[in-house]
Design a protein that fits this description.
- Chain B: This is Maltose/maltodextrin transport system permease protein.
- The structure holds 3 protein chains of 3 kinds.
- Chain A is α+β, with helices and mostly antiparallel strands.
- In chain A, about 30% of the residues lie in helices and about 30% in strands.
- Chain A has helices at about 45-50, 95-105, 110-125, 140-150, 170-185, 195-200, 220-225, 230-235, 265-270, 295-300, 370-375, and strands at about 5-10, 20-30, 35, 60-65, 65-70, 80, 155-160, 190-195, 205-210, 215-220, 240-250, 250-255, 260, 280-285, 290, 305, 310-315, 320-325, 330-335, 345-350, 355-360.
- In chain B, helix 13 packs antiparallel against helix 16.
- Chain B has 16 helices and 2 strands.
- By secondary structure, chain B is mostly helical.
- Classes of the chains: A alpha+beta, B mainly alpha, C mainly alpha.
- At the A-C interface, strand 6 and helix 2 of A face helix 8 and helix 9 of C.
């Protein structure tokens, strides 16, 4: 049962002015599956490497079970790691690759053999044990890398984009497998990815980072439904949330393309926070822009008229792209059989109960704190 | 402003800036280094440099004052070491000054020193490991090279050999001799013209033979590629001095060329009086030696070009054949330019290597008829003549030659770096 | 149809011409070596042979003469002692400093690498005057152990000249091993030394072999430095290159068949080593050579 704490952790590389990681604070409880997600260069991998002991921690404290381990070497931190490139030792057989960590820890030879065999069974590479990594396919190499991490029972598993070199199909199945292994082992897993789908599907808690700063920490549902700011809102979810700036006045939001009436709940918050007669940004997820007369009847005051710019047919749904304001692209996900073609002028309905509100200047969510209070 | 003050005082007294900034430990080491420097300068550098240019009563400027008491050569090396030490002292002062300035800056900006010293192990250990190598490079390459150059400005030659004699400074006399002394200048210019011919024709032969054979073996219709490649690497695998000696015999009056091949070609029976003087007649010997160098040198280019050919994507040729190209236009418009682009730095160093190839000249020039009045074989090139002069203990003249050789080779190598962008790419990074 | 056959004729002629040149060149390369090989087993006492295959073949006679009439085995031992010692010394420096330059970022790193590159400008031959004088000043030739000390001096020169550009080549090869592997091993629990020994060393072995062969061949083939530094020593203390040279230029004491026998024996180790490691050497050369 271990608790991992990162307190005001910062990273600054020599000869650079800027911090690669600024003031990172996180407490991880035992058994949690934590995903660091963010665009490339956001500092997520750097943070992971600091946890692994591959990078020095410039400032702040890193504690495992209350003990400061900043200056402890990687091998004493009791961690295992899966690398993006898998980092399999090319000159060793798969068996030696998996067993190397145990060999260094002076395990008995027969013991190593049994453990390797067992783990090979689990990750499904028993037939390749005597081969060199080069002879394996990408997916098989990935399994070897997983097996190498799994053979020990460390306090923390670290995974640095382990699926990014796999094709889409394999990625989905391996995702499930990693989640299953995590449940079986019960140790803390910290998983780094730039793919928000991986973050959503696997994480107990997501740490979303950008420009070296934590944007939001929370469950996938938290981040999706109650994003702290516009960056979180647009990063999580596919297709990304559509946003547009406009003015708010007495319950009505007006932008270049349309005017809609906001829900009483939103209105109460906006008026209460002093946003009347000022600029705000609204954000709507694609599945909250509907089409059809039923919706038009339900929400007559959020019906907008748009010209279809592009259509993506996805089988179970259709994505409609339009520009309420030149340069601002909106997406709506509608049912797949609607007869629409490009350049058609149609009517869509914005679900007024699912509109995200952001401050035009700070880009922070206006509803974040109220919603959070509502939860608890 | 404080950082400028500590910079300047640290330049004069290393460590003083640190003491001013209350960096006691570093400051004390600096002051101790200064004391060591002063001691070295007084005890070693000044006396050695004084001896290194001693004015005798008769006006001669000698290295050392008394024969047998002072070994001129040891004093010369000591003087070079002294100058190097002085340069080292200046660098130490600069390092202290720059460091003091940075610390002053940090104190001014943040109120304390932010640069942590915990990366000492990351600095000290690598430096400790690479230091012995640089001591070797200094002792066995840099120091000898500098001393060799200095010898060109002295009268160090037999019989003036220390410790029985003192070496004298002679300024540019040895260089001037190349122009003024009729025998020396005649020797120099004849050697120079043959050196140019030798360097370029042997390089051209080696490079073109290497490219041609590599391209031919690489032809997709040729079978037995591996066999041909093995045969063509053979001259490189056998040590060059052995093949040169083999050829020395092969082309002699008794060798296989005269006793087997020529009778077979002409149908005339072999007779000792009827042989061709391949390595004896000067003009014939020059051609023979260039051909031998072609034999010896092409495998390196052959291997290199074979490697480059493998990297040329075959769709280039497919595209060209769609455009109507044939084998010849393919070679001149695709293969050759691509080879030249990637291998030109190597070709330049190849030229420098052939220029400086003393071994083949030294081993093969023995049998050649030397013209009346000349001490040296007409086959000698500038580098090999330098070597001969050295063997004859004419060190000062040899040094002039090796200075010429160093400049030519140096320029060629720098040129090849520029071509390959050695300083730009990550090679050095 | 006519056009195609004309094209085929040209192609056929081209390939035939190709083969002709290649076979002709092969003969030019093999013939002198073959003659030497035959001569080594030629028992005939005359100074020349006019037939390709000797009339009287003896497998041993010339080699026995080589042992009894010359100091051949001394030369052999001297040469390979110097060569092997230089190779081991240079390889140690090349491997360790190549590793340091590749994996550690320290302040002196870049100046050090540039120095290694710039030192290439100085051809080894132009340091000879001073090297001889230094060896002389050190009292090597006057010492009771003049022979081993001279060898040691030469070995140091070979080690130094053999570990400048080769270090850079080695460093580039270390660079080609992904750092992920080091880090992975670090997390597996390996120390710095274990990372070096278990992970990096096996992966850079091809380049170690290539550079080892190169540094091994240089002292064997060198004529210049031994000619200069070993001149004052006894003739049995010289190297193969100089010793064989006296054999061929001094017909009174030997004959070409004995020289041929000596040449074949001297060529065997380098050629065997070369062809065992041919694959490594060719790939190493193309990797190192094209880069510069």
């Amino acid at each position: 049962m271990s608790i991992i704490e990162l307190k005001h952790v910062k990273k600054k590389y020599a000869h650079t002015e800027k911090y690669a990681v600024k003031d990172f604070n996180l407490t991880i409880h035992s058994g949690e599956f934590i995903v660091f997600v963010g665009p490339s260069g956001c500092g997520k991998s750097t943070t992971l490497r600091m946890i692994a002991g591959l990078e020095d921690i410039s400032e702040g404290d890193f504690l495992i079970d209350g003990i400061r381990v900043n200056d402890m070497s990687s091998k004493d931190r009791d961690i295992a790691m899966v690398f993006q490139s898998y980092a399999l030792y090319p000159h060793m057989s798969v068996r030696d690759n998996i067993g190397y960590g145990l060999k260094l820890r002076r395990f008995d030879k027969n013991d190593i053999k049994e453990r390797v065999n067992a783990i090979a069974e689990v990750v499904g590479i028993s037939e390749y044990l005597e081969k060199k990594p080069k002879a394996l396919s990408g997916g098989q190499q990935q399994r070897v890398a997983l097996g190498r991490a799994m053979i020990r029972t460390p306090k923390i598993y670290l995974m640095d984009e382990p699926l990014s070199n796999l094709d889409a199909k394999l990625r989905t199945s391996t995702r499930a497998e990693i989640a299953r292994m995590h449940r079986a082992k019960g140790a803390v897993t910290i998983y780094v990815t730039h793919d928000q789908v991986e973050a959503m599907t696997m994480a107990d808690r997501i740490v979303l980072m950008s420009m070296g700063e934590i944007q939001q920490i929370g469950s996938p549902r938290d981040l999706y439904e109650n994003p702290k700011n516009m960056f979180v809102a647009t990063f999580m979810g596919m297709p990304p949330m559509s946003t547009i700036q406009g003015s708010y006045k007495d319950g009505y939001f007006t932008c270049v393309g349309f005017t809609i009436k906001l829900s009483p709940f939103d209105r109460q918050i906006l008026d209460g926070s002093g946003y009347n007669h000022s600029n705000i940004i609204i954000g709507i997820r694609a599945n909250h822009i509907k089409m059809g007369t039923t919706y038009e009847h339900h929400f007559p005051e959020t019906v907008i008229t748009i010209t279809v710019m592009n259509i993506e047919y996805l089988g179970d749904s259709k994505n409609i792209f339009f520009e309420p304001e030149p340069g601002v692209v909106f997406v709506a996900t509608i049912e797949p059989h609607a007869e629409i073609s490009i350049d058609d002028t149609i009517q869509l309905v914005i679900d007024p109960n699912n509109i995200h509100l952001f401050d035009a200047k700070t880009k922070d969510s206006i509803k974040y704190h109220t919603k959070k209070l509502g939860h608890s | 402003m404080k950082h400028n003050i500590v910079y300047i005082i640290s330049l004069i007294i290393p460590g003083s800036g640190h003491l001013l900034l209350k960096q006691w430990k570093i400051g004390v080491t600096g002051v101790m280094i200064l004391l060591a420097e002063i001691l070295t300068i007084i005890k070693f550098i000044v006396p050695t440099l004084q001896l290194a240019a001693f004015k005798q009563n008769d006006g001669r400027l000698t290295i050392g004052a008394e024969p047998f008491i002072h070994d001129s050569f040891i004093i010369l090396i000591g003087a070079v070491l002294g100058v190097v030490l002085l340069a080292l002292f200046i660098i130490i002062h600069l390092v202290y000054a720059i460091n003091a300035q940075r610390i002053a800056n940090e104190i001014a900006l943040y109120g304390s020193i932010t640069t942590r010293w915990n990366n000492i192990s990351g600095e000290v250990i690598p430096n400790l490991i690479i230091t012995p190598k640089f001591l070797l490079i200094f002792g066995f390459i840099l120091l000898p090279a500098v001393v060799s150059i200095i010898v060109a400005f002295t009268n160090y030659r037999t019989p003036i050999l220390p410790p029985a004699f003192l070496i004298e400074w002679r300024g540019f006399e040895n260089f001037a001799k190349l122009a003024t002394d009729p025998r020396m200048s005649a020797l120099f210019y004849e050697t120079l013209s043959w050196t140019v011919v030798w360097t370029f024709s042997s390089s051209l032969l080696v490079i073109s033979l290497g490219i041609l054979l590599a391209v031919m073996v690489n032809n997709k219709y040729i079978k037995g590629k591996q066999l041909f490649r093995t045969i063509f690497i053979l001259p490189w695998a056998v040590p060059a001095f052995l093949t040169i000696l083999i050829f020395q015999y092969f082309f002699s009056r008794l060798g296989a060329m005269n006793s087997i091949i020529i009778p077979w070609l002409t149908g005339q029976p072999y007779s000792l009086d009827n042989t061709i003087p391949f390595l004896i007649n000067p003009e014939l010997a020059k051609i023979t030696i260039i051909l031998i160098q072609g034999w010896l040198g092409f495998p390196y280019i052959f291997i290199l070009v074979t490697g480059i050919l493998q990297t040329i994507p075959s769709n280039l040729y497919e595209a060209s054949s769609i455009d109507g190209g044939n084998a010849f236009s393919n070679f001149f418009h695709i293969t050759l330019p691509l080879i030249l682009i990637s291998a030109s730095p190597v070709f330049i160093t190849q030229v420098a290597f052939n220029f400086n190839n003393v071994v083949i000249i030294y081993l093969l020039s023995g049998a050649v008829v030397t013209p009346v009045g000349s001490m040296y074989s007409p086959l000698e090139t500038i580098p090999s003549l330098g070597f001969r002069l050295m063997l004859d203990s004419r060190f000062n003249e040899a040094a002039v030659f090796s200075l010429i050789v160093t400049s030519v080779v140096g320029i060629a190598i720098v040129f090849s770096w520029i071509k390959s962008g050695a300083f730009k790419n990550e090679e050095v990074m | 149809m006519k056009k195609i056959s004309k094209f085929q004729v040209i192609k056929f002629l081209g390939i035939s011409f190709n083969y002709f040149i290649l076979i002709f060149m092969s003969i030019i390369i093999l013939f002198p070596l073959f003659i030497t090989l035959m001569s080594a087993f030629n028992q005939k006492n005359s100074l020349f042979s006019i037939t390709l295959i000797p009339e009287k073949i003896s497998l041993t006679q010339n080699f026995i003469h080589l042992s009894t009439r010359t100091s051949y085995w001394h030369w052999y031992l001297n040469t390979f002692t110097i060569s092997i010692a230089s190779t081991l010394g240079a390889l140690m420096i090349i491997i360790i400093s190549g590793f340091i330059y590749s994996r550690y970022r320290f302040k002196a790193r870049k100046p050090a690498l540039i120095t290694l590159l710039v030192v290439q400008i100085i051809p080894p031959s132009s340091t000879l005057i001073a090297l001889y004088a230094i060896a002389n000043s050190l009292g090597i030739y006057q010492s009771a152990y003049s022979v081993p000390l001279t060898y040691l001096f030469m070995i140091f020169v070979y080690i130094t000249t053999g570990s400048t550009i080769n270090t850079i080549i080695m460093k580039s090869y270390f660079d080609s091993v992904p750092r992920d592997l080091d880090e992975s091993a670090k997390i597996d629990g390996a120390s710095h030394f274990q990372i070096f020994k278990d992970i990096l060393l096996p992966l850079v072995t091809p380049m170690i072999v290539v550079l080892g062969v190169f540094t091994f061949l240089i002292p064997i083939g060198d004529v210049i430095m031994p000619r200069f530094l070993l001149a004052s020593l006894h003739s049995k203390d010289t190297t193969l290159a100089l010793g064989l040279n006296t054999l061929i230029s001094d017909f009174k004491n030997s004959n070409p068949n004995i020289f041929a026998a000596g040449a074949i024996l001297a060529a065997v180790p380098p050629v065997v080593i070369f062809f065992i490691f041919q694959k490594y050497i060719v790939s190493g050369l193309t990797a190192g050579g094209v880069k510069g």
